[in-house]
Amino acid sequence: MSSVLVPLATGCEELEAVTVIDLLRRAGIDVVTASLDGEPVRASRGVTLVADTHLDEALRRDFDMVVLPGGAEGARRLGEDDRVTELLRKLADSERFTAAICAGPKVLAGAGLLEGRQATAFPGALDDVPGVELRGGEPVVVDASVVTSRGPGTAMDFALRLIELLAGEAQAAEVEQQLQRPSGHRQYNGEA
pLDDT, tens digit, for every residue of 136-156? Predict the structure, then answer.
């Protein structure tokens, strides 16, 4: 079973965090949420999220993927945390997945993971980052082991694409069918 770490920081975008956590768990993927300081996390819209563990505890494990939720303040806090940067680089060096949505791709850029890659993010989040080929109109962009997405409105497409990468297309389709999304809505893989 694949394992995913979702670090949560004060100011994170709750819709993005919860959508990713929920859908990946529906797919049978082992998802661990970790707060930076071990305390409940007050998200960008005032929702309090209680993480499974403290980041220091989570870092004792190996993960197949790290997913960074967005939210400007949450992404800033993740980007300022040396433990997060070190983990992202470690996963990238071992060709495991790093994924981020909304303002989260700026954290990937700060760790040096977007240089020469295609990516998307919340409009303006990567405008001042050199060396990134922005694919702003796409809901989800996969470039090798780096996955990026635009924002709250693309969170479901993002999560389904992550499931496909970790557990296969059939598992992603099964989870999507259970969600009762309108037929033909799949955009996470570029289809209309």
Answer: 889 999 999 999 999 999 999
The secondary element (H helix, E strand) that includes residue 38 is none
- Cα–Cα distance between 133 and 53 in angstroms, integer? 35
Q: What are phi and psi of 104, to 5 degrees?
A: -60, -35
Residue 60 makes CB contacts below 8 A (sequence gap 6+) with none
Domain ranges of the chain: 3-179
Measured CA to CA, the distance from residue 82 to residue 72 in angstroms comes to 18
Question: What is the tens place of the pLDDT at every residue in 19-35?
Answer: 999 999 999 999 999 99
Catalytic hit among 31, 102, 119, 141: 102
Q: Looking at domain 3-179, what is its CATH homologous superfamily? A: Class I glutamine amidotransferase (GATase) domain (3.40.50.880)
3-state secondary structure 95-129: CCEEEEECCCHHHHHHCCCCCCEEECCCCCCCCCC
Residue ranges with strand state E in 3-70: 3-8, 30-35, 41-42, 48-49, 53-54, 65-68
CA dist 104 and 133 (Å) reads 16
> Active-site residue 102, yes or no?
yes
